[in-house]
Amino acid sequence: MDSTLHFNRTKWKKRPNPPNCKTPLLTFFILLFCIVFFISSKSLFSTSILQISTNSKSDIPLQCTTTIGAGDSSENFLWYAPHSGFSNQLSEFKNAILMAAILNRTLIVPPVLDHHAVALGSCPKFRVLNANDLRFKVWNHSIELIIDRRYTSMADIIDLSSLISISAVKFIDFRVFVSMWCGVNINLVCSKDLSKHSSLHESLRQCGSLLSGLNGNVKNCLFASEEDCRMTVWTYQKDGEDGILDSFQPDDELKTKKKITFVRKRRDVHRTFGPGSEAGSASILAFGSLFTAPYKGSESHIDIHEAPQDQRIQSLIQKIEFIPFVPEIINCGKMFALQTIKAPFLCAQLRLLDGQFKNHWRATFRALKEKLDFLKEKGPLPIHVFVMTDLPMRNWTGTYLGDLEKDSDAFKLFILREGDKLVMDTAKKLVSGGRNAKFQPAVNSLDGGEKHCNPQSLSDILLFVEETVCSCARLGLVGTAGSTIAESIELMRKNSICSP
Ligand SMILES: *[C@@H]1O[C@H](CO)[C@@H](O)[C@H](O)[C@H]1NC(C)=O
Ligand SMILES: *[C@@H]1O[C@H](CO)[C@@H](O)[C@H](O)[C@H]1NC(C)=O
Ligand SMILES: *[C@@H]1O[C@H](CO)[C@@H](O)[C@H](O)[C@H]1NC(C)=O
Description:
It comes from Abeliophyllum distichum. Keywords: Membrane, Transmembrane, Transmembrane helix. This is O-fucosyltransferase family protein. The chain crosses the membrane at residues 21-40. The protein is an alpha/beta fold. It has 3 domains: 3-59; 77-320, no CATH class; 327-418 and 460-494, Rossmann fold. The protein is 42% helix and 10% strand. It is built from 18 helices and 15 strands. It has helices at residues 3-14, 24-53, 86-102, 131-147, 154-157, 161-165, 174-182, 198-212, 252-258, 269-273, 311-320, 327-341, 361-378, 400-406, 421-431, 440-444, 462-471, 484-494, and strands at residues 77-79, 106-109, 121-122, 127-128, 171-173, 222-224, 232-235, 265-268, 284-286, 294-295, 298-299, 345-350, 383-389, 411-414, 476-478. The strands form 5 sheets. It has a 5-stranded parallel beta sheet with strand order 5-2-1-9-6, with helices on both faces. A 4-stranded parallel beta sheet has the order 14-13-12-15, sandwiched between helices. Strands 3-4 form a two-stranded antiparallel ribbon. A hairpin with a 2-residue loop joins strand 10 (294-295) and strand 11. The chain binds 2-acetamido-2-deoxy-beta-D-glucopyranose (3 copies). One 2-acetamido-2-deoxy-beta-D-glucopyranose (NAG) is lined by residues 353, 394-395.
């Protein structure tokens, strides 16, 4: 129990018993004494309340005294900070599932974040946002998605049912967790009458700051990891590797130029954060970024690709290599291929505007041209091409795409837009809560029927439908080199999600 309460309880016990009343005069004095005592004890009582709720540094935060935070329930939780674009968020989500399984914690399922809402920085350049700040940004954005009524859970898009059915990992929706842990009704933050709920916003902000680790760790309650890709590569059950230096270190030039002091170590995540560690006894463990990518013969942050000594984790690793989109999205993509394109087609996935891809137009178009020239020779014409690109159609003039469009004898182009009926109808289905069977009831039961925060605008599912269409492309895929979207389509094709 919390130390403040203990302290006050002992104070209460020391309270002198009111003496018995024997004579009228004595009674008067005693009554007076009693009144004075009553008033002073009342003020004593109210300061004690104040002490608890002001969360002064030495006190245990309220959140850590609830059943969910106090460590007296057997359920422990894992939170982390997703960032960047969707493909990135998805690969972090998979790593989070893996970490949750290894550490036997319930994974807090985050929302899908807007593409440019949160950025990590660069691991190879040792220039990344520290974990606390990253987490608070993610928190802030997640709450804003709720307020804006644009919240889409990762579990609305990614089909977790096969993982849930084998009880590989336990999940909890971020909104449900926040409601319980922060002791707020999250469905009220969207209420029109903002002034009525400004204290709610403030307590949410405080709660987010605590959960992000900005106020430090709280024994048995919260452990906010500050490890990131500059210093740690996580491993699991790699004998003899725990604590050794990773092969990739900042080079001397970087060290002197940027005054970098980081040393990258390989560490066993179960030994570091599992049972017996400080983190292990905290009911909530918060990671920062869980993004990893191969770099110079090493992994930037997580190097767990197999677990031969742990059959449960080994089979989970295989299972999460590919997690499909929810059936609504897959059906939508299949339907477009079947009913609109109708013939065997090629998928051209052309990332042209975002980030590094701006400078690679020539190479990207060259690969497409080679493939189309080849198909043109083989026939039959026209060749059906599904184009998935971030370059708006009005800007195609003057590019290779413009040429293809003009050559309508040889090529028949197809694109999907966000406003297309098929896409809109599917997005509506997702919003109306057909999905998310595991979480939606809990989210909806948060308040007595008023669902202020249910999403109003449809989530942007175009990318996911496009990826599905591309996985149905029988003539092949021309992807953009280095694009995570291309990789994700390849994975879907390998798992033949389009076959009936
Ligand atoms: C995992 O945690 C659950 C509580 O959520 C507990 O009942 C179970 O014994 C734990 N399993 C292991 C292997 O530690
Ligand atoms: C998020 O951060 C911005 C900028 O600091 C702030 O104005 C906004 O109120 C925050 N939103 C929430 C929900 O905390
Ligand atoms: C696309 O075209 C619009 C005008 O229609 C122009 O303002 C915009 O800069 C173009 N974008 C690119 C990337 O060329």
